[in-house]
Design goal:
With 86 residues, the chain is α+β, with helices and mostly antiparallel strands. The protein has a domain at 23-76. It has helices at 3-7, 17-20, 64-73, and strands at residues 42-46, 59-63. A two-stranded antiparallel ribbon has the order 1-2. It is globular and about 30 Å long.
Length: 86
């Protein structure tokens, strides 16, 4: 049982929506290419900003640094893009 499930007694309340929809966090940043063996350094980013929209084309794995940059500078991705639009 994962930590979130254990925390919520297996109810599934701690499982992120994107995970329930089959998205798997990658081990590299889809914006800058940073690689890590520690998944805690990555976040799942919703391109349109809507956390309810968990379509695979709306989700990207980005590192914590890129997450901050995207928040500051704005989104440079369009839905369905495989690489960032610089």
């Amino acid at each position: 049982m994962c930590e979130s499930c254990a925390r919520y007694n297996g109810s599934g309340k701690g499982i992120p929506r994107w995970m329930k929809h089959g998205y798997e966090k990658k081990d590299f940043c889809e914006k800058c290419g940073f690689q890590s063996k520690h998944s805690e350094q990555f976040d799942v980013y919703h391109i349109d900003g809507n956390l309810e929209n968990c379509r695979l084309g709306n989700l990207k794995t980005i590192c914590a640094n890129c997450q901050r940059i995207v928040q500051k500078e704005g989104n440079q991705w369009k839905q369905g893009d495989l690489v960032p639009d610089f």
